[in-house]
C-alpha cells in the first residue's frame, strides 16, 4: 500500500492490522473479507465469505467491510444497516456466472409487476442488494464487474430465469445511502437501481455499461454529482416514478450536476481512458442520455440538472405518460455533441400503465437554459407535445444554440405527426417532424428566447410548427431564412408573439390563427 492509500484509509478509520486478520475481528472499524476466507482470485466463489464479513460488521453495531486488491467472484451480496463496503485499489467484485441449480437470490414475488418492467419489480436477484436498510454505503476506488448478469432482454440468459442476476446494485426502501468513487463495468439491466431510497448521495462514479447506468425511482433528497456514464444500449441517468413499491411515490428533491452521459464509446473504453469509438453500425440508435420516465406513476418534483455534457447519444427527455405530476424542474448549462434525436423532448401522454382510475398527469413549470448542441440529427428538432385536452404548461427555454444536419424537404414540412396518445414515449415516435427548430403541440404559456438554430445543409422546413397552443412568446430568434419557407406555422394558436427577430420577421402579434404562417 502506498503512502497516499494508507492516508486515505486512515482518514476513514479503515487501517487494518495484519496480525488480527486470523482472528476474524474488526480492526479500527474494518472487516477484511480475506479474514473470513475470501480468496480474491477471480475463480473461487467468495459469496459466503463476503456475507459473513457483512454479518460480523452488522453484529458489531456497524462497520466497514474491506476488499483488498483482488477479484472476488460472487453471487448475491446482502447489505446490512450501518455497514459499508470499501473497494480498495485493485479490488473488483465480479458477478459470477450462474448455472441451472446455483446462482443469485431468487426474484421475490411482486403481484403488481405488470405496471413496470420486470427489472423494476424485483430487487433480490442482484449482485449487491439491500431492503429496508439505513446508513449504508459502497465506497472506494475499486470496481464492480457485472460479467455474469443478465441485461434483462435479448438473447442469452434472461432476468426471469432461476438463479440469474439482473442488476449490479439494487436498493429498496433504504435511507442515508452513499455510493462514491468506484466503477461499474457491464452492469446488467441496471448498474444501480434505487427505489424508495431517501437521503441518497451518488458521487464520482464511473459506469461503463450495456444497459441503464443508474435509475433513481421513487426517491427523495438525492444528489448525483461528478459521475461519468457510458451506456450506448440504454439510458445513462434516469429518474423514474414507478409502481415498483406497490404504490405510487414521487421522485422529489433531486440534483444532478457535473456529469457526463454518453453513448459513443466502446464498452470498457471510458473506464480505461482510451475512449475508443463504438464500432460503426453497432447499436443504432445510441441512447446514453439523461431522462425522466418512462415509468411515471406518481411524479417528479423539485429537480435541478446542471453542468452536464452529452456525447454521441440522445438529448434530454422529460416524459410523463402514466399519470405522474411533473413540475418545478430547472435544467441549465448543458453541452451536447452528436445528438441522434431531439435535443429537447418533452412528452405528456396517456399510456397509463398503472392501476385504473388514475387521471392523466401534468407537465408544467419547467425552465431550460444555456444549452449548446452540435451535429444534431436532421429529422428531429426539439419537441414539446402534450395530448388533446392535456397541454404541457408554463415552459421557458432560453439561451439555446443548436447546430443540426439540416436537409429537410418541402415534403417533410407538410407532414402532420400522429398523436400516439398512449404510445411508449421516444423522440422518434412521431417520425420526421415538419419543423427543424421546435414542434409544439397541445401546450400553454410557452416562452422561447435567445434561440439560434444553425443548419449544416439548407432546410426547407420552418423554424417552428405549433398546433393547439395558447400563449406563445418568441424573443430574439435566429435561424436560416429560406426563400418561400415561413418562420412559423400556426394551427389553432392563440396569443402568439414574436419580437426582436427582425432578421427573420418583423415584430408580430397574432390573437388567433386557425391556419396561418408568419
Task: Present the secondary structure layout.
Elements: H1 3-11, E1 30-32, E2 41-45, H2 47-59, E3 63-67, E4 70-74, E5 77-78, E6 83-87, E7 91-95, H3 118-121, E8 126-131, E9 134-139, E10 143-145, E11 167-172, E12 175-180, E13 183-185, E14 190-195, E15 198-203, E16 206-208, E17 212-217, E18 220-225, E19 228-230, E20 237-241, E21 251-257, E22 260-262, E23 290-296, E24 299-311, E25 316-320, E26 325-337, E27 344-348, E28 362-376, E29 382-385, E30 392-404, H4 410-413, E31 438-455, E32 464-478, E33 488-499, E34 508-513, E35 516-517
How would you concisely characterize the structure shown here?
6% of the residues lie in helices and 45% in strands. With 518 residues, it is mainly beta.
Task: Supply database-style keywords.
mainly beta, 518 residues, single chain, 45% strand, elongated, disordered N terminus, 35-stranded mixed β-sheet
Amino acid at each position: 500500500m502506498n503512502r497516499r492509500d494508507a492516508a486515505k484509509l486512515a482518514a476513514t478509520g479503515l487501517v487494518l492490522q495484519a496480525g488480527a486478520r486470523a482472528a476474524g475481528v474488526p480492526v479500527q472499524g474494518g472487516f477484511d473479507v480475506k479474514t473470513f476466507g475470501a480468496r480474491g482470485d477471480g475463480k473461487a466463489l467468495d459469496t459466503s465469505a463476503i456475507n459473513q464479513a457483512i454479518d460480523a460488521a452488522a453484529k458489531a453495531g456497524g462497520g466497514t467491510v474491506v476488499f483488498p486488491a483482488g477479484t472476488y467472484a460472487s453471487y448475491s451480496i446482502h447489505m446490512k444497516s450501518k455497514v459499508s463496503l470499501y473497494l480498495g485499489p485493485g479490488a473488483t467484485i465480479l458477478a459470477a456466472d450462474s448455472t441451472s441449480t446455483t446462482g443469485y437470490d431468487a426474484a421475490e414475488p411482486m403481484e403488481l409487476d405488470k405496471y413496470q418492467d420486470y427489472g423494476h419489480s424485483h430487487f433480490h436477484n442482484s449482485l449487491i442488494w439491500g431492503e429496508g436498510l439505513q446508513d449504508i454505503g459502497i465506497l472506494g476506488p475499486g470496481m464492480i464487474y457485472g460479467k455474469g448478469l443478465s441485461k434483462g432482454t435479448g438473447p442469452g440468459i434472461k432476468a426471469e430465469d432461476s438463479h440469474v442476476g439482473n442488476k449490479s446494485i439494487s436498493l429498496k426502501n433504504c435511507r442515508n445511502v452513499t455510493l462514491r468513487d468506484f466503477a461499474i463495468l457491464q452492469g446488467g439491466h441496471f448498474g444501480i437501481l434505487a427505489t424508495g431510497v431517501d437521503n441518497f448521495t451518488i458521487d464520482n462514479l464511473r459506469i461503463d455499461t450495456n444497459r441503464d447506468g443508474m435509475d433513481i425511482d421513487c426517491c427523495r433528497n438525492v444528489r448525483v454529482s461528478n459521475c461519468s456514464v457510458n451506456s450506448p444500449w440504454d439510458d445513462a441517468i434516469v429518474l423514474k416514478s414507478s409502481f415498483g413499491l406497490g404504490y405510487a411515490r414521487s421522485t422529489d428533491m433531486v440534483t444532478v450536476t457535473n456529469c457526463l452521459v454518453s453513448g459513443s464509446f466502446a464498452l470498457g473504453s471510458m473506464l480505461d481512458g482510451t475512449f475508443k469509438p463504438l464500432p460503426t453500425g453497432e447499436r443504432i440508435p445510441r441512447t446514453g442520455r439523461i431522462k425522466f420516465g418512462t415509468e411515471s406513476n406518481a411524479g417528479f418534483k423539485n429537480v435541478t440538472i446542471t453542468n452536464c455534457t452529452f456525447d454521441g447519444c440522445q438529448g434530454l427527455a422529460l416524459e410523463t405518460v402514466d399519470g405522474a405530476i411533473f413540475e418545478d424542474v430547472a435544467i441549465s448549462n448543458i453541452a451536447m455533441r452528436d445528438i441522434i434525436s431531439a435535443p429537447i423532448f418533452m412528452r405528456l401522454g396517456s399510456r397509463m400503465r398503472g392501476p385504473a382510475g388514475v387521471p392523466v398527469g401534468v407537465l408544467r413549470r419547467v425552465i431550460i437554459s444555456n444549452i449548446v448542441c452540435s451535429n444534431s440529427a436532421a429529422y428531429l428538432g426539439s419537441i414539446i407535445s402534450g395530448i388533446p385536452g392535456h397541454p404541457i404548461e408554463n415552459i421557458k427555454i432560453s439561451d439555446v444554440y443548436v447546430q443540426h444536419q439540416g436537409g429537410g424537404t418541402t415534403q417533410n414540412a407538410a407532414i402532420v405527426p400522429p398523436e400516439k396518445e398512449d404510445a411508449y414515449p421516444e423522440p422518434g415516435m412521431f417520425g420526421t417532424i415538419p419543423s427543424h427548430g421546435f414542434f409544439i403541440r397541445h401546450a400553454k404559456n410557452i416562452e422561447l428566447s435567445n434561440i439560434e438554430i444553425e443548419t449544416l445543409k439548407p432546410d426547407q422546413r420552418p423554424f417552428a410548427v405549433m398546433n393547439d397552443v395558447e400563449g406563445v412568446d418568441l424573443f430574439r430568434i435566429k435561424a436560416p431564412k429560406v426563400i418561400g419557407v415561413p418562420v412559423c406555422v400556426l394551427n389553432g394558436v392563440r396569443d402568439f408573439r414574436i419580437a426582436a427577430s427582425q432578421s427573420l420577421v418583423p415584430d408580430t402579434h397574432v390573437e388567433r390563427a386557425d391556419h396561418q404562417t408568419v
